[in-house]
Amino acid sequence: MATTFLYSIHRTACRSRQYFISQSNRINNAMDSHLAFHRNTSLVPLSFLSQAKWSTKGAGVKYTSYWTAGKSTAGRSRRGALLLAGAAAAVAGFVASVCHFQRAEMASRIPKTDEEEKDIAEKCKAFMSPPVTDIKVLQQRRGEMCTRMEMLIMETQAEFCKVLEKVDGGTFKVDRWERKEGGGGISCVLQDGKVFEKAGVNVSVVFGNLTEEAAKQMRSRGKVLKGKNGKLPFCAMGVSSVIHPKNPHIPTVHFNYRYFEIEEEDGSKQWWFGGGTDLTPMYVSDEDAAIFHRTLKGACDKHHPQYYPNFKKWCDRYFYIRHRGETRGIGGIFFDDLDSPSQEEAFSFVRSCAQTVVPCYLPIVWKHLNDPFTPEQKAWQQVRRGRYVEFNLVYDRGVKFGLATPGSRIESILMSLPLTARWEYMHEPAKGTQEAKMLEVLRNPKEWV
User: Fold this and answer.
1) Phi and psi angles of residue 211, each rounded to the nearest 5 degrees, phi first
2) How many Å is the Cα radius of gyration of the chain?
3) Angle of CA points 41, 153, 104, to nearest 5°
């Protein structure tokens, strides 16, 4: 009798597991087909872009698996108790834990993706330009972090540029450049378009020896760097973008994701990731801010529940114009020196963030694409752009590092500056206006989700 009972449970569990696997596969396949169709459509409907599911591929399933995966041991203990309590309760408990097991199994696939397994040469065909590093070299060291990160930033650049071209109708100018000290980059710039006054999406992969000024800047952040004969070999790469639209109702957006590696005297390597995405609207919209922040939060929550609140606060602190007493925009996420819990998980997190670039911004662009605006609203946009310039030239760490690195390409470093801006003496918006409301948010950052 006991043998028959246990066999019945085993058969039920197996069938349940097969059912959940088949259902998960059907859902994933349907989502992939749905996404593929819309990504290849020249005009993506706003109603689809604004859906949360689109923000991160499969995010709904993987987010659930994040908090259930850690309960498997407790689940097994409960199943033992339920077996003693009775057949009906045991089967129900077992089936429930099969769901948890399946979700945990899905979560474990995060570090390796199908995209990474594709042939590197084949993937490079979809880029805006061949990678900075020779494709044969990338093939030979495909498992190394430098290769994986270079492929990620090239993919991010290509995806974002192609989506913006569909919105604007214009074409990015692709400009390859080399750095005689080692490495180079690919600058993609769209200027004077129908929608975007200036849009830049840059990739850089540089290596060589850190200058003393650059090393000093890193040591000021707590880095212990031990060079050999005064030299610190390094490799740095990243993708960086700033989009300045013509319409003042479409926000400016910025993102940057980067990887840094330093070889020390004993041959050991220090590495870390950094980056973030932030929004700078000229007019505050609670709905736009919620779309933007919710999408970023979804990417963060897949990896750690404290990532979003911590990195949101960091963003508000970092993009702060001290001499004005106001933030540059309504924030987003920002992090630096990320070297835990492991290199694999840190890279997985950065990849999740990079994949939110399109879905956190494009719904807002489509929403305001044809909004009318007045000369006064355009003038306010120009004043706010002046603040953007002030932050980038006075405080931005990336600009300062670039200017301190020999052989850096000035055009690419200053790509983030708008085509036009305005500085008015003692400018202050009238009380009760939309401009005054925006300034109040910049002076007192708020929670959006």
Assistant:
1) -75, 160
2) 25
3) 80
The number of CA neighbours under 13 Å toward the Cβ of 190 is 28
CA distance 412 to 126: 22
Report whether pLDDT(21) > 70: no
**Higher-scoring residue by pLDDT: 211, 287:** 287
Q: Nearest to residue 128, comparing CAs of 163, 104, 92, 88?
A: 163
Q: Are the beta carbons of 90 and 82 closer than 8 angstroms?
A: yes
Count CB atoms within 10 A of the CB of residue 79: 17
Q: What is the pTM of this model?
A: 0.72
Residue pointed to by tokens 């409907």 = 45
Q: Give the containing element (helix H, strand E) for 263.
A: strand 252-263
- Give the pLDDT mean for 81-87: 38
Sign of the alpha-carbon dihedral angle for 81, 85, 87, 91: negative
Residue 32 Cα distances to 16, 57, 262, 302, angstroms? 24, 8, 38, 19
How far are the Cα atoms of 154, 234, 361, 384 from residue 160, in angstroms, in the given order?
A: 10, 28, 10, 24
pLDDT of residue 216: 66
Report how far residue 402's alpha carbon sits from residue 133's, in angstroms, rounded to the nearest whole number: 20
Return the pLDDT at 224. Answer: 67
Query: Residue 325, Cα to own-chain centre: how many angstroms?
Result: 27
CB 193 within 8 A of CB 166: no
| Cα gap 243→196, rounded to integer Å | 7
Is 254 annotated in the active site?
yes
Catalytically annotated residue among 100, 244, 249, 254: 254
CA distance 202 to 403: 16
Q: Which amino acid belongs to residue 397?
A: R
Neighbours of 93 (CB within 10 A): 19
* pLDDT tens digits, 335-389: 999 999 999 999 999 999 999 999 999 999 999 999 999 999 999 999 999 999 9
Which has more pLDDT, 38 or 142?
142
pLDDT at 213: 64
CA 425 to chain centre: 37
DSSP string, 62-111: HHHHHHHGGGHHHHHHHHHHHHHH-HHHHHHHHHHHHHHHHHHHHHTTTT
